[in-house]
Amino acid sequence: MKYYTQFENKSLADQLIQKALEYKKAPLSDNNLGRGKRIGLLFLNPSLRTRVSTQIAASNLGMESIVLNMDKESWALEMEDGVIMNQGKAEHIRDAAGVLGSYFDILALRAFPSLTNKDEDSEDFILHQFAKHSGLPLISLESAIRHPLQSLADMVTIQEHKQKEKPKVVLTWAPHIKAIPHAVANSFAEWSIGCGHDVTITHPEGYELDERFTQGATIEHDQDKALANADFVYVKNWSAFNEYGKILCTDESWMLNEQKLSQAPNAKVMHCLPVRRNVELSDEILDGPRSLVQHQAKNRVFAAQAALSELLK
Ligand SMILES: NCCC[C@H](NC(=O)CCC(=O)O)C(=O)O
Ligand SMILES: NC(=O)OP(=O)(O)O
């Protein structure tokens, strides 16, 4: 495997989930695999979990990792070809990625969408520029359209907590104060459908996700109906996709709380974090027995370790 950027197929997903569970039991079982190798973790946006969990994963595999917060500590990058660079951006992606390609064995990149240029975001332009001009194997640390390490950790968490072979998994839109990317929702849908779960997506009218990610899911605009008998409820805000990057709904009644789960007594609740408490999700759920958010965050280490081990092979 050269790129870990998206869901590929169920058999690879199952293999990665198993590998992550093995690493969770014995984190240092492959601590020679990455010996002498170096990974560059490049962040164009903030991070808590992804940064730390991927560094721990690399360390568990005997690899050195170097973090570069490119949004704050590096030169502003020009991504477009053929530009006359007489404005604010000091370095071209061709030059920067070429240099980084010579320093590292693997690159990992976080690059959120602009939420203004739908075409460039939809084709994951920045991720592809880094891949092309560095020539290195690449791991996505959340791109414009996907967050595959989060999704793998989410699948591991579902695998650990599911009570039936094909659980009912509900992805529900939640309110937020800002326009938020689609990556987590897209990726969660892509992986959960791909892993064979019974997936329902619920959101207000106008919040349809890119259909590339939702084929095979039931779309239900009535949140109460969608939540009935759910085994897992994944709470997430995203901005509109069709009216790209817009906030169309501020209806606070979409926030998930205990009362909304009265028809889903066994439902476990998931969120990738960071979460806006009492905007997206109530304190009572986050601090109660239904919440899996800390399990998800812990599993980020083993998901990253499983993905990295595939790239090192
Ligand atoms: N990597 C996890 C989520 C990152 C991002 N959340 C955010 O930007 C939240 C920002 C805030 O709440 O101000 C998202 O949902 O795609
Ligand atoms: N869930 C997640 O990716 O968190 P960070 O943005 O803090 O890395």
Overview of this protein structure:
One of its GO terms (biological process) is L-arginine biosynthetic process via ornithine. Its EC number is 2.1.3.11. The chain has 313 residues and is an alpha/beta fold. The chain has two domains: 157 residues, Aspartate/ornithine carbamoyltransferase (Rossmann fold); 148 residues, Rossmann fold. 36% of the residues lie in helices and 15% in strands. It has eleven helices and twelve strands. Strands 1-7-6-2-3 form a five-stranded parallel β-sheet, sandwiched between helices. A five-stranded parallel β-sheet has the order 10-9-8-11-12. Strands 4-5 form a two-stranded parallel ribbon. α8 links the parallel β8 and β9. The protein starts with a strand and ends with a helix. The model has no long low-confidence stretch (mean pLDDT 98). The chain binds N~2~-(3-carboxypropanoyl)-L-ornithine and phosphoric acid mono(formamide)ester. The site of phosphoric acid mono(formamide)ester has 9 residues, from α2. The site of N~2~-(3-carboxypropanoyl)-L-ornithine has 9 residues, from α8.
Succession of helices and strands: EHEHEHEEHEHHEHEHEEHEEHH
Shape annotation: globular
- Please write the CATH class name of the largest domain: Alpha Beta
State the share of residues found in helices, binned by percent.
Answer: 25-40%
Strand arrangement, largest sheet?
A: 1-7-6-2-3
Summarize the biggest pleated sheet: 5 strands, parallel
Low-confidence runs of at least 5 consecutive residues: none
Kindly state the mean pLDDT as a whole number? 98
- The fraction of residues assigned to DSSP E strands is 15-25%
Number of helices, counting only DSSP H or I runs of 4 residues or more: 11
Bound molecules: N~2~-(3-carboxypropanoyl)-L-ornithine, phosphoric acid mono(formamide)ester
CATH topology of the largest domain: Rossmann fold
Distance between the termini: 8 Å
Class inferred from helices and paired strands: alpha/beta
Count of domains = 2
User: Care to count the β-strands?
Assistant: 12
Give the radius of gyration: 19 Å
Secondary-structure arrangement, i.e. CATH architecture of the largest domain? 3-Layer(aba) Sandwich
CATH superfamily of the largest domain: Aspartate/ornithine carbamoyltransferase
GO molecular function: amino acid binding; ornithine carbamoyltransferase activity
Domain Aspartate/ornithine carbamoyltransferase Asp/Orn-binding: 184-309
Catalytic activity: N(2)-succinyl-L-ornithine + carbamoyl phosphate = N(2)-succinyl-L-citrulline + phosphate + H(+)
Family: Belongs to the aspartate/ornithine carbamoyltransferase superfamily. SOTCase family.
